[in-house]
Amino acid sequence: MKAPEVLGTDANGNTIRLSDYRGRKLVLYFYPKDSTPGCTSEACSLRDNYSELRRQGYEVVGVSIDSAASHQRFAEKNALPFPLISDSDKQLVEAFGVWGEKKMAGRTYMGTYRTTFIIDENGIVERVIGPKEIKTKTHAMQILG
Predict the structure, then answer these.
(1) Which residues of 86-115 are buried (b: 16+ CB within 10 A; e: fewer)?
(2) Mind listing the pLDDT tens digit of every residue in the chain (145 residues)?
(3) Is 39 a catalytic residue?
């Protein structure tokens, strides 16, 4: 699967393009909601291991349907060194097939499946870490493997 060229807009209004990362591997991780325990653990795992990820040729971009303002607060509060895409129109979550029906506490609702796509230097998805596999507290180690 080839990833789309335009990935979205970050919290600062910058357009994030796949070609911005040409020659490096991209960790494109989709998460359900800013400032929730699991999503914070996952973001902090990537933050804490960011220099090692970069040393091994990876860049990191997070995606959720939260607003740019929410992303800005989340990134500042947790000192995240990588961009977060606000996919409020759900184009990217739908394009990657990570938007759908979820169940929690007997309630059914639509939401984002926590999923990470590792995209190679040429824009091709080479690995998918699915919702049942992701360990939020050690997610960076799963990527570095």
Answers:
(1) bbeeeebbeebebbeeeeeeeeeeebbbbb
(2) 889 999 999 988 999 999 999 999 999 999 999 999 999 999 999 999 999 999 999 999 999 999 999 999 999 999 999 999 999 999 999 999 999 999 888 999 999 999 999 999 999 999 999 999 999 999 999 999 8
(3) yes
Model-level pTM? 0.95
Show the DSSP H helices in 5-130 as ranges.
37-48, 50-55, 68-77, 91-95
Three-class DSSP category at 75: helix
* CA-wise closest residue to 62 among 77, 78, 42: 42
Distance between CA atoms of residues 87 and 100, nearest Å: 14
Rounded CA-CA distance 47/49 in Å is 5
**Active-site pick, 7, 11, 39, 60:** 39
Q: Structure tokens of 83?
A: 């961009």
Specify the CATH number for 6-144; select among 3.40.30.10, 1.10.390.10, 3.10.450.540, 3.90.170.10.
3.40.30.10
